[in-house]
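User: Sequence in, structure out. Go.
Assistant: Echoing your sequence, followed by the structure tokens.
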Amino acid sequence: MESWPRVALNAPVGSLVGKKVAVGGLGPDGTSTVVYAHLLRRPHGVKVAITDTTKRSTVAGAASPTVEPGMTLGEVVLAHADVRPWTAAEVPGLKWKFGAHPQWNFVWVLLIVAALVAAVVSRQFVFAQWTFPLIAGFVGLKLQGRKKRDRKAVGQAYVVEGGRTIPPAEVFAMLPPSAVDPDAESLTPTDRVTLVREAYGKLRTDVAYRIENSALFDGASPATQRFEIALIAWDPDSPDASSLATEVEESFDAAREAAEAEGFAHLPETAQDTARRAHGATAMAMAATNPAERLAAATKAADLLRSLALYYLPSLDPAAPQLLAAPKEIEPAP
């Protein structure tokens, strides 16, 4: 059985646009798994439709995050599927469940709206009468399905080759030999901590994620506090470096899972509506293709967040590519 073409885990996702890949790695429960991803170009980044093939009680990560083009494939899989990757390959094709692929969400709505317009123009009012509730029902199902995908992101796609659907176990066997052998523990403790730091750093630059999952960036949150303590305690020269690295990994997973479960509820009740509006404005800014619209939405988001004055929420710069304001430097005393 021949392997599919290898895809480097350190390849920037910007260089993989249009590709469909399968990534083998270690899931949050310590079991091997396969993650599927389809990379799509967007005006201000790369949208990654991503799904894990192993069902778990909890699965972190969104089903279709938009990330920076410079983010590597391995970093995306770790940050948004909670899987530590060790091999990847380009697959012949991916078959997505109905409505699961984000690229088709808008297309289906457009088709139904077009049908409604055609019905009205042709005066087929009987058809139009049931098209209105059809649209409402379809949009409701799409929103509900998106919410489930964002929280679960499991089992939404299958590899297909020559018209045949290939089960995940067979896909795993067809991946190229691992550049990182997890059984041989070829990742050093320092490598493991570096991966966590990189994943955490990428999440810090994701403005929308920081607004929606603010507990991960609030040291007053118990799970985040444990993670921060683990980072402080990390010592690559310690004889217990392996166990210290394990604590960094486990505390990061726990902090992220807790933050994503809590979501906007971590914020003071009086701040939640404003934060949701800021989150929506941020999404509009990142998706906008018109510079004026982008600036207007980004400015609105920045003003809303500034009004909340919460230290763990990001400060925005409407002119910055990822909207994140550069940290202020403390000037030396005269």
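User: And one key feature?
Assistant: Residues 267-308 form one domain.
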